Every structure is written in C-alpha cells, then in structure tokens.
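Design request, tokens follow.
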C-alpha cells in the first residue's frame, strides 16, 4: 500500500507480480490532459502487467500486473487500449452511430462493453462495444422494453439513504418514492430480482414528507416502473424502504490504525483477482453473483485480459499462500465511459458463473445510497494485497489494511496536489502528510466507510501519484457517481 512520483499525473493502481527476468520499470512516463485547458505535469502511472502464459504456482510472472492501488493509463501511447488504431476505431464507430441516427432516425445508446468466454474466442482482439438501437418513440421507464438491448428500462430505480425505494416516472422523468400501501414480499422480491439480486432481504414502511408518490397498480412480470402510477400523496405518508441484501457486516472488528495485517473476517467483501495464477487486482463482492473492480485491470493492449478463463476470483482470503477454491468469471463488463487517459469512471463489473455462498469469511459490502454523503474528514478504510512500497514488483502475501481520511475534491485539485485531475466521478482519501495509502496491486479494491451499523462501498481503488507521498493521496472511483451504471448492468445480466 504505497504510491508514486509527486511530479507526475495520477497513476492508476495495478498489482505488480514477481518477475523471473531482469526487473523492469514499474511505470512509464505519460502526459495527458484532464480537462479543458488543463494539462498536468507528467506523472509516472502504474500499469497492470499480465503474467506470461507459463507461470509457476504462486509466482507472478506478469505482463499485466495492475497495482494494488492504482493504475493510471497504459504502457505507452501506442499501447493505450489499442493506441492510435483504437482511437481511429472509436472515431469510426462514432461516425457510424451519427450516420445511422440521421439515416434511420434511431437513437444509438451505448451500453456496457461486454466480454465473455464464448464471444472472445472469436476475436484476435477484444470485441467491439455493443450499441443499443431504440425507436424514435421510445419512452424511458414505462416498463415496456422499446430498445433492442433494453437500455430504456435499466436506469429507473434507485435507493435513498434511508433505504427508500425511488422509481423514475415515465410521465415526467422524475424519481418518486413508492407508496407502502399494497406493498408485500412479492413486490420486494420482484424489484430486487429486477436489479440483479436474487431476492429481497427486508422491506418496511417509513414516513415521508414527499408531496407526491407512486401507487402500485397491478401485478405482472413488468419491471416495477411499469407497475406504478403518480398520485398526489401516499396513504398515511408511508413509503417503501427496501434492502435487497444483508450486507456490510464484519465478523471481526479489532484492528490497528495505519497499515497493518488484516484479520480473517475483517473485510469479508475483499477479493483477489488472479490472472493466469497471479494476483493482479483487488475486487469487491457486492452480491452473490457480481464483483466490482477497476476497468484499468483489463487493458485493451492485452486481448488475453478479456478471456474469462484466464481469471479466477478468490474470497475469504487474508494470505495469498492459502487460497480456497476460486470463483469463476462468466462475464466481464467494462464501463463504456471509462477514459484510460484521465482514469475517469474507472469501474468494471464481473459476473460470476455461480453464486457465492456467504459465511463468516465471505460477505458482500453495501452499495451506498444515491444521496449518501461521506464528507471531508470521514475516516474510512482501504485494503488489498498490493505492494507495500512504491515501484516494488512484489505484492504483499498478506491482506493489508489502512485507515484513510476523505479529502475534498477542492483540496485534492489544488496545484500542489493533483492540479485539476480529479473529476466529479472520483474522490480522494489518504493523508496529505503522506504515509497512508494504497498502491500497485490494490487496484479495484475497496474503500469502505462505516454507517450506523453497516459498511458502505464509497470508492474503488483507481490511481495516485506514487504511494504514500506527501500531497499525493489515493484517488478512487466514486461509487455513488457510477451507481446507475452498476445497477443497469446488474439488471441487464440478471439471472
């Protein structure tokens, strides 16, 4: 859990593996813009190196090791997710989308980039993004699938900090609470299953001061947004509070602040992602079937990174020397808006081949509510198997934990810190004095903060300059900003 050179742009966190060949530099110099008129000084950024095809057990021969904490960009401009060829391809696809929109009057909505074992074998390079086609008269969130891939019905449900279920009305495109009258376990299970969870955990009535609400109208296989109508107020001012899963619980709570070895059960949602036998990134369990990690753990420059059979996921692990049976990956979904130059929206979702059985060692963390706030100064925790020293090629054999403090975007974007490189989809956490941080190999791992009784996933380890350097805190993908993408893709891949 460490970092990178203070004079360069934010590096992404990647895990680093042990090399049997002469040591290589763990970073390359890359300069990139981060917004209109903003070009930060060059910063080395860590890139995942994937192990070579033949790997000795427990030895990382990497050519893709994402650092435990961040991973910035790509190996070089020519390798950056396809390099110039990839850029031309993207421009070509954009031009095609525009032409089709003009020619046929349809909207082409970009959906998640999807890779799976069946599709990838047909490609020498990773498959192209898939696009959804929608008719002109498409109505969002009416419960009726108009678009070919159903993207018109995927971003229609969210949860408030009190668990309040909010559904977007097709009438005026506004989210409103669902009235509790008529609500029962059947509706609860139906709604949670719609979002990609297997069933509901608990639902109850809570009071609301909202002037309008959504009344239940019928029972049918339609999504919840197709089963409600807007009314002036909910009976008795009671609305639905829904939780789809028991989450964010620890079996072990004793810990030492500041870079120590974690105990079994302390961070039961922490996962280790192995590529061809080597740890390269962290991951976070959010449901029996889905894992969140960083998009930069899957560089386009390495097509084999998109073959699901190359990956194994381990849970309930506090030592890489003692591994249980792995979970296997069914699908790899990358955020289509991920920018490998700026690290914006650095998020990926893995669907597992079979559900995880929860126990004392393996539990999911809670996704935050859309309006849940963790202000500057909030003490949170990050964990992972990343290196404990910037530039090191050896990951930690033990799961490490460290407490970090949320730092405001305003502070983090100061010229002395990251000079404008932190977007609205990122958050900073650490210590401006240095010393406490994540590092290469921590990439994709969790930044969690404690609520009243549960732990919430606030960030995904993404990038940073160095590891533990002064004025260079860790930068994380802000989970609340990408919640619509997470829920939409869990819904698209629901069982």
């Amino acid at each position: 859990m460490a970092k990178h050179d203070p004079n360069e742009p934010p590096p992404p966190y990647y895990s680093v593996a042990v090399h049997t060949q002469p040591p290589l530099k763990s970073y390359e110099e890359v300069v990139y813009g981060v917004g209109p008129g903003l070009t930060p000084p060059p910063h080395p950024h860590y890139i995942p190196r994937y192990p070579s095809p033949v790997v000795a057990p427990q030895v990382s021969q990497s050519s893709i090791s994402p650092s435990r904490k961040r991973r910035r960009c790509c190996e070089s401009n020519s390798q950056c997710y396809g390099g110039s060829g990839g850029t031309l391809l993207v421009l070509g696809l954009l031009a095609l989308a525009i032409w089709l929109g003009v020619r046929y009057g349809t909207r082409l909505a970009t959906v998640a980039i999807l890779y799976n074992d069946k599709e990838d074998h047909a490609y020498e390079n990773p498959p192209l993004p898939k696009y959804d086609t929608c008719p002109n008269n498409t109505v969002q969130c009416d419960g009726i699938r108009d678009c070919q891939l159903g993207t018109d019905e995927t971003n229609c449900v969210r949860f408030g900090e009190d668990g309040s279920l909010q559904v977007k009305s097709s009438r005026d495109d506004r989210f409103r609470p669902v009235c509790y009258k008529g609500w029962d376990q059947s509706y609860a299970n139906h709604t949670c299953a719609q979002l990609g969870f297997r069933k509901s955990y608990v639902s109850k009535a809570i009071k609301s001061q909202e002037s309008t609400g959504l009344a239940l109208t019928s029972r049918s296989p339609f999504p919840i947004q197709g089963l409600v109508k807007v009314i002036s107020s909910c009976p008795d001012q009671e609305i639905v509070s829904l939780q789809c899963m028991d989450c964010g619980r620890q079996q072990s709570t004793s810990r030492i602040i500041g870079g120590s070895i974690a105990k079994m059960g302390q961070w039961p949602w922490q996962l280790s992602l192995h590529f061809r036998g080597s740890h390269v990134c962290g991951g976070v369990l959010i449901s029996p079937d889905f894992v969140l990690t960083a998009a930069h753990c899957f560089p386009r420059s390495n097509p084999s990174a998109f073959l699901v059979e190359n990956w194994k996921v381990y849970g309930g692990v506090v030592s890489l020397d003692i591994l249980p049976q792995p979970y296997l990956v069914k699908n790899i979904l990358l955020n289509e808006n991920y920018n490998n130059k700026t690290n914006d929206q650095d998020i990926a979702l893995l669907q597992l081949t079979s559900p995880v059985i929860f126990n004392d060692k393996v539990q999911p963390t809670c996704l935050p509510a859309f309006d849940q706030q963790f202000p500057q100064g909030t003490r949170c925790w990050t964990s992972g198997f990343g290196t404990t020293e910037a530039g090191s090629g050896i990951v930690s054999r033990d799961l490490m934990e460290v407490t970090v403090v949320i730092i405001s975007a305003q502070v983090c974007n100061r010229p002395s810190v990251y000079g404008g490189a932190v977007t609205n989809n990122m958050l900073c956490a650490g210590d401006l004095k240095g010393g406490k941080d994540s590092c290469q190999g921590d990439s994709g791992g969790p930044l969690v903060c404690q609520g009243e009784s549960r732990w919430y996933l606030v960030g995904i380890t993404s990038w940073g300059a160095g590891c533990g350097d002064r004025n260079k805190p860790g930068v994380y993908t802000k989970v609340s900003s990408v919640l619509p993408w997470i829920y939409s893709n869990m819904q698209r891949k629901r069982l």
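Comment from the thread starter after seeing the answer: thanks! The mean pLDDT is 77.
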